[in-house]
Structures are given as C-alpha cells and as structure tokens.
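Hi there,

I know you've been waiting on this one. I reran it after we fixed the sequence typo, so this is the corrected version. Both the input and the resulting structure follow.
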Amino acid sequence: MLELADVHVGYGRAEVLHGVSVSVGAGEIVSLIGSNGAGKSTTLRAISGLLPVRQGSIRFKDQTLSNRPSYAVVRAGISHVPEGRRLFGDMTVRENLLLGGYTCPVAELGARLARVYEMFPQLRERDGQAAGSLSGGEQQMAAIGRGLMAQPALLMLDEPSMGLAPKMVAQVADMVRSIREFGISILLVEQNASIALDISDRAYVLQMGSVVKEGPSASLREDAFVRRAYLGL
C-alpha cells in the first residue's frame, strides 16, 4: 500500500532523513519509534507533501506521491493527524470536523460526519462546543475524527498520546485498534514505545534519521537494544 524507498529529506542544507525505507500494508498498524529528533515526524511530513523529497521515492497504491502537493496526497487516500492536535480552538467541534472533509463532495459531508460521530459518540455530545474547551483526550478524538472525514485508506498519527493522562493513553490505544476495524491502515509515530509496540503489527526504530531496526512488534519488544533504549528494561 505505502512504500518509502531510500527517502532523503532535509531542512535547508541539513539532511534529516538518510535513506529511510518504510512500508505499510493493507490493514496493518505500523509504528515508528525513536527519540526526539530521530526523524519520525519528518517522515510523516515528507509523505504528506509538507517537505520535499531530495532522493528516493514515496509510492501509495501504485501512485508516486514524492513531492506531490498535500491536497493531492489527501485525495490519494492519506490523512495526517499532526502532533499537538492543531485544532481551531474558537471553532466548534463540528466546524473542525467539517474542515477535514474539504476534499469531499458537499452532498457526502453529512454521512461522513455521522460516521465519525458513530466512532466517537463523545464528539456528538460536544458538537456545538468550542474545540478549545475540550479535554485533552476529547481534543485528540476530534483531531483523529477530522482526519477520518477524508475517508482515508491510510491514517498517519503523530504522537497521539502526547500530554494525556495514563487513563486517556489507554483509550487512545483502543481508538487506534478500533479504527483498523474499519479497514483503515495506520502509520503511528509514538514516543511511548511500549504503547506503540503493543498496538502495532510491525515497527521501525529510527535513530538520527536512519532505520536501525525493523520487524514484528512482538519481536522488537524482546530485542535487547529496544528494551534498554526505549522500554527502560
């Protein structure tokens, strides 16, 4: 479904990704783990068309997405839920969700909104409430719901557990699992390596812009390097 091959990306003169190769298959949850500055969010931004690819290729469902504009990436079937949620705090929950459907025919918006409310009943209850007044967990639901309004085949989540209480972190993990049940593949960036490995099928470990380990999440959880560096074991 998604295939990154030898992708190089940078900011200005500084190269941040040094030949990253990552794949996500249909129906998979794949996680990227690593410390701050490892290149995890940069990888998602490159896929989304927010950063230019200097070398290598990004393909999705037999389409080349390298250096395509962000709206074209969304129309191809990829949604990106950014780190920090990035909701419009003064706008209502409904208004924020509808923004996620900007590529959708107007006649379909109602049905897509109903589907998101079916997945997240709490958002239906907060429909007319300002997004900035929601709890952290509810804001994350709204951010994910906004991404789902485009009816993606692949949803990219950047640090969805950031800043949340432990109870809400567990709920976010359940959300990710439930989204997969709708036939949506997920590429997850998560600094909480324990959560990431618990909910994903496969994982890649990034260090200094390079993939240093990859494999089934269950195997990486038992890997001595991963246990020491990322799981605190």
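Quick highlight: The mean pLDDT is 92.

Best,
R. S.
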